[in-house]
Amino acid sequence: MATYKKVEFDNAQSMFFSIALNKGWLPSPINKELVSESKISDDISSYYFEGMYYNNIVNAISNGNLEGKYNPNGWNNLKQAILNASEVQGTSTNDIFVVSSALHGNPNAGIPNTPFLKSKLNGQQLAMLYIAFSSGLFGKPTTAEILYKSHEDGSCSLFFEKEFHSRLNNQISIAYNDGKFANSNSEDDWNDLIAVIRKSEGVSQINMGELQPYIV
Questions:
Q1: Rounded distance between C-alpha atoms, residue 130 and residue 200, angstroms
Q2: How many whole angstroms separate alpha carbon 23 and alpha carbon 73?
Q3: Which pTM was predicted?
């Protein structure tokens, strides 16, 4: 009879866990070493770790594999969730889907009901956004608040965490009302960037294996 460790991740913890697997900071699952139930709610998902695989994850954490990363609070929350796992005997996987493929490059798999909004920015818009973050015009994102995928034409698809996107929109409104864009030499470029960000669309599924954290 198989023994699994049950871990409940919120959306942020799921993102950090996916990044850790993709970066090789935590060992990748094989076959059904890691399975996931349907979401408990919009914010919480249950993950089942095969016993030996769970021990390998804990050993990697104990060895400091998640130390010294950006956004230490996010990584600490992930570690706490993993270490608070409960033991489950004889878990049936008949109605549970394997998530390792969703986390490692299967384009037909993904994490449903994702907490992201997606926009595609061209090179000029990406440059303007970076300037806005680095100059302090907008608050810088922490790890996993923006993820990105590069395209051959120099553009990028940006995936904004919904709460961060809401804050960013508020900051845009404040800057706009203060005349920060109108008083610049690039008002049209700023307006183009604002329009693209505000037209961001919801994403039902993402392939975390294709995405990287956007870091300023």
A1: 17
A2: 18
A3: 0.51
- pLDDT given at position 20: 83
Contact 161, 144 (CB under 8 A): yes
Q: How far is CA 8 from CA 17, 35, 43, in A?
A: 12, 12, 10
190, 128 Cβ separation under 8 angstroms: yes
What distances in angstroms separate CA 120 from CA 134, 155, 168, one per listed residue?
A: 20, 7, 16
pLDDT in tens, 115-151: 788 999 999 999 999 999 999 999 998 877 898 999 9
Distance of CA 68 to the CA centre of its chain: 18
What is the DSSP code string of the chain?
--EEEEEEEEHHHHHHHHHHHHHTSSPPP-TTSEEEEEESSSSEEEEEEEHHHHHHHHHHHHTTTTTT-SSHHHHHHHHHHHHT-EEEES---TT-EE-HHHHTT-TT---SS-SEEEEEE-HHHHHHHHHHHHTTSSPPPPBTTEEEEE-TTS-EEEEEEHHHHHHHHHHHHHHHHTTTTTTSTTHHHHHHHHHHHHT-EE-S---GGG-EE---
| CB contact at 8 A, 92 and 84 | no
User: For the chain, what percent of residues have pLDDT higher than 90?
Assistant: 27
